[in-house]
Amino acid sequence: MIRVEHLSFSYGETRILKDVNFNADRGSLAALIGPNGAGKSTLFRCILKFLSGYEGKVMLDGQDMKDMSRPEIARKIAYIPQTSIPVFNYAVIDIVLMGMTSGLRLLETPKKEHIRRAEEVLEGLGVLHLRDRGFGRISGGERQLVLLARAIAQNARILIMDEPTANLDYGNQLRVMERIRSLAKAGYTVIMSTHDPAQALLFADIAFVLQDGCMLASGPPKEVLTEEMMNKLYGVNVQMMDIETDGTMNRICVPVRSVK
Fold first, then answer.
1. Mean pLDDT, the chain, as a whole number?
2. Contact, 155 vs 75, CB < 8 A?
3. What does residue 109 show for φ and ψ, rounded to 5 degrees?
């Protein structure tokens, strides 16, 4: 579990995060919602210990992360960026193996059991057929699944994802989100940022709303992401609607056209 307590952070005299508090429990998918400049990326950097000098606490399984080394953190938290294209066109299998470096000694190379584990993870995500392909020459959706595989191979049970479906087509967005949801169901703690309220409404267990560095609200997505909240965050009018699909009621967010 991750618990953030009274977290504040400044770049110089500019306050970016202001007394942020939230919990993310084991086996949950948390969606972090907020406009550009709200402080989402800074919050992630503090959680990952990429930034130091923040006020407050980030607790990981009851331990203050300020007292943890980077290798210790890497064994518990994996980070999946929006996208990643390396300078060198590494094979997909090598990208996944890179996730295991926190468990290797200095100058130690992966062994057969590491390769076998990487292949198992790729197979579990349905992309084993990409094993020997160049990472820079596969589609955006496939790259995100490979980055997920690298995170899983890291054996970390907490996944931090920065807009994991950014720049993906509609089909790949859904496929990646389905995989992310299945990881939460399997016991992973997933915290992802998104600009798409539909992703939070359809897939997330809890939504955190961040604006101007402050946590405005947190709770079940259907309760937090209201028409009033969307207008406050983005300055747009939307209508929330409930539709039934396969016997389940799902909420969707529909923009209201301002010009007819």
1. 89
2. yes
3. -105, 155
